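User: I'm preparing a small set of examples for a lab meeting where we compare how different chains pack in three dimensions. I only have the primary sequence for this one, and I'd like the structure in token form so I can line it up with the others. Please keep the answer compact; I'll paste it straight into my notes.
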Amino acid sequence: MSLCLAPARPRTEPAFWAARPAGYSHGVSSTEAQTGDDVEHAFVAGRDDALRMAYDTYGRLVYSLCRRSLDAEAAADVTQEVFVAAWQARGRFDPARGSLAGWLVTIARNKVIDSIRAQARRPVTAREPDQSDGATAPSAVDATADRLLVAAAMRELPDRAQRVIRLAFFDDLSHQEIAERTSLPLGTVKSDIRRGLERMRRHLERGA
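Assistant: Understood. Below is the structure token output for the 208-residue chain.
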């Protein structure tokens, strides 16, 4: 099972991508830039740089969800719409009730479904050949959103915890095999997995 979240670069870049400062790299993770808590605090406070921080931290997550169901140009447009809508409605975001990542994914899910339905209402002659049938169902968008939230929760873990959890659940190794593979004590492997899963559970509950 792959959890790679790096999307192909959009053919048409949203304004934030086009306006990024020199040296800016799209897809910066929260552990490489600022923490999710930092971004949430800035977002709630309405700081001038909060929208940029949110986009830098969660842009890849939102774009990945959009791109699973839309073409690159539409996904880029919807990604920008998500962040604009979130910023305009930031007064309704409550960190005590859920994470910013989860809130953004919910907005993105709804906008992706709206976009799919809008495409379906277009005259057949105006659609692209590959868009006339088989539009992504809302349930498929939900499933994609859930997978991306799990991946986002995984990225919040320390590198060592990420590695042992991937070995346990994606490579199907036993705790002893992980200890041998990583040269970590068996007790450390077990505690890393237990604490990592608990941290992911809390993250996902906040994002629900």
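A couple of notes for your slides: Residues 28 and 56 are 6 Å apart (CA to CA). The chain has nine helices and no strands.

User: Perfect, thanks.
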